[in-house]
Structures are given as structure tokens and as C-alpha cells.
Amino acid sequence: MSVFFSSTVNLLKTKTTKSLKTTTIPLTFYYYYNNLTSTRNKSQSTSIPKKQLRIRDHAYDNYMEVEKKTRKVLKFQPLILSQRNQTIPISRLDILSRRIGFKQLEAGKFILKFPHVFEIYEHPVQRILYCRLTRKALLQIEQEKQAMDAQIPDAVTRLRKLLMMSNTGRLRLEHVRIARSEFGFPEDFEYSVILKNPQFFRLFDAKETRNKYVELVERDPSLAVCAIERVREKEYRERGIDAEDVRFSFIVNFPPGFKIGKYYRIAVWKWQRLPYWSPYEDVSGYDLRSLEAQKRMEKRAVAVIHELLTLTVEKKITMERIAHFRLAMNLPKKLKEFVLQHQGIFYVSTRGNHGKLHTVFLREAYRKGELVEPNDLYLARRKLAELVLVSPRKANVDRELVSYRKGRVGDEMGQVRRVYAENGFNNFGVEGDVGGDGEGADDLNSNLGSDVDHGPGNLFDLCSFALAGHECNAHIAAYMK
């Protein structure tokens, strides 16, 4: 009996010890395995993580908020300029504005917000309100047109480079037409850019789809140089960076608030050294099934988007415009997620159109919300943004300032006449009323509150100088004549 009891006790001891071992060993192994796999995943990561938190940059978002207003203003300008005498009644403007997406009675409220662009006046005979563009707005349109015509040779070069980046050397004409404003092509680019240069381009209709295409006649090796390659050469010569580090690298400027960890920094460093094929190189003959080839194609897609942005006028383009060239330039399907992987190179803004459009900026081309190397067409478009940003209160202050200066000039000149009459100086040769607007005044300028004439300031200076000494009498008389 004692033997049986001892054997059962030993058996229970072994079972309890085995059960304890089975409960303790997996826990220790679990922690060890997690630590091992986590360190392996962090240390062996050679690509940038796909899912990243998007960090907002307010400089680019504010830029798009201003462009949202200018985009609406640009919809009204053709409506007004297409009318007779370039004027339109407010009632008719409310009706026509429905075609461009405005509701009833919204057009009048909208144009009142921008008095430096639109001018409302009462017709002298019909006694109804009319609307026309201000003188500054007309000058801005003329300046933009002149800048557009002057850069047509550059537009020809940009279109040739676009066609060289495509797989077949051709693009749909409709896709180019949709993105013509971003690339600085004029409205009649089909004639002024394509048909006027038959040595570079050829138009044809596809038999299968009946779509019109523009095709490159001959590739020019001198144009097959990316903008990033020039930047690399400049960085290499000025800063003396290692040639192996700068050979395939891009300029990376992360947005403020972007957290860069140790392993993420290592992944970016490895990605910068990864070789890739040029956007202007034909990759149809390469075997793209290997993992190394896929990595090169992903980096080539970054170079293609980078080159597209450098060819634009404002170094920005909407994601939807880029998607039109996706198949022709071997870009990935999930384009938005792909661009968000490289927030140090590009910035994606959802402002400007209620989140429906995604605008891609080239970060290295901007500094504090302004283009680093502006061109004439960009400056002409920014003039319209400056007119839009001026508040209506500033326009009212300008009108009051004009009327105040006119009255002030009359009072000052009356005092000058009285002083010289009392002193016996009758040779003050002034005829007419000084407080008037003067001869040859512009009708647009007389009704514009935004266009302030700064001439009376010089007149005040001369009058005070005349009161101080008698020797300037002849100069003032000559000036007033």
C-alpha cells in the first residue's frame, strides 16, 4: 500500500512539473520571438513604408485656398469679355453663371467680394446695374497673354519632352488639352504648337478607338536630361558630396512635424542609393519580373512624376492630370498612396476644391509658399491672386482717399493764392480749377476705387516749397501750366 502511494505521488509530481513547464516555456519563447522578429523587421527594411501618416504643410494649403478664389474668378472673365463692349447686366450675369456652377443670385454676391477685379456701375440711360472688369484686371489679362505668347518656344520643348517620356512616343491629344494650363500651352496649342512645327510633331487618328493622338517625329538625345540630374551635378560640384551617395538621390525636405525615426532614416538612405532607369529611357526591352527590376521601376516612377512637375509652369499639377498619363508612362495604379510614400519630395494638398482634387507640389521648387525660380507666366497669374486678396474694405478706403485728396488740393491751392495776393505777387500764373481731375482723365480710372492716383502728393510738396521761399515762383507756375 505504501509503495502504491509513493508511486502515485511521484506520478503527480511529474505531471505538475510538466504542466508548469508547458505554461512557462511558451511565454518566454513568445517574448523572445517577438523581440527577434521586431528587430529583424526594423534592421532589414530596405524600402520606405507604404502606409504613412500625411502631415499637412500650411504654406501649400494656403496657396491652394487663394487659387480656389482665382479659379472662380477665371470662370467669370470669359462671360464678361464675350459680351458686347465687354460689359454685362447683373441680371443676365446671374442667368449665365448657372452654366459655370453658380446658383441663382450667387453671382452678384460673389463679384461684390472682389472690387479690384469686377466693377459695378449704373448705366446712364437704362438706369440698371452693369458689370465690367477693372483696368487692373484687364492689364493682368493682357500681361498673361503676352507671357503666354513669349514662351511658345519653351512650350514646344516641354511637349517634346512629354512625348519622349511616354512608352510609344505618343499621347492622346485630349489628355494634353486638359492639362494645357499646367504646362503653359495656349488655348490654340493644336495650331500654334503642334501644326506649326511639323518637324517635331504629327497628328493622327487611331483606327481602333478613333481618338486623336500627337506623336513625336524624332527623339532628340539632348533633351533626354532630367532636371534632377542637373541639380545633382550642382550639388556635387558645390558641396563636394560623395559621388556614390548623390548619383541616384533626390532632394528630400520633410514637412514640419514629420517624425523621422532611426530605421526610417536608414530606409531612406538605402532608397536614395538604389539605381533606376531614366524617365526618357525605353524600358520595353528589359525583363521586369525580378524584385530588383520592380524596385527600379518604382523609383523610376518617382523620377517620372518629378520630371512632370518640373515641366509645369507653377511646379504643381493635380493627381487627376497625372492619372491621364499613367498607362503611357508606366505609373502605378494606386497613385495617391504611391505619392504619399515620398512626402519629402512631393506634397499632396486636398484644399482648393472641397477635397475632390488632389494637387501635387514639388517641394524643392517652393520656399515659404512661393516659387524659388519664378517665370513670367507664373508672375502674371500671381498678379490676379494679388487683386483677389485685396479686401473690399481696402477698395472703399481707396475711394474715400481719392475724394479726400481732390478736396485737399483745392483747399491748399486756395490758401496759396491768398498768401501770394496779400504779399503782392500777382504773377502767379494759374488758370482753371486745381481741384479738378485734369484733362485726359481715363473713364475707367475715374470710376475705379482700386486705382488711386498718387499725383497730388507731388503737388503738395511743391506748394509747401512755394510758401517757404519766393524763389520757386517760376517753377511752380511752369509746373501748373
Automatic annotation (TrEMBL):
<dbReference type="InterPro" id="IPR045040">
    <property type="entry name" value="PORR_fam"/>
</dbReference>
<feature type="domain" description="PORR">
    <location>
        <begin position="56"/>
        <end position="391"/>
    </location>
</feature>
<dbReference type="InterPro" id="IPR021099">
    <property type="entry name" value="PORR_domain"/>
</dbReference>
<protein>
    <recommendedName>
        <fullName>PORR domain-containing protein</fullName>
    </recommendedName>
</protein>
<dbReference type="Pfam" id="PF11955">
    <property type="entry name" value="PORR"/>
</dbReference>
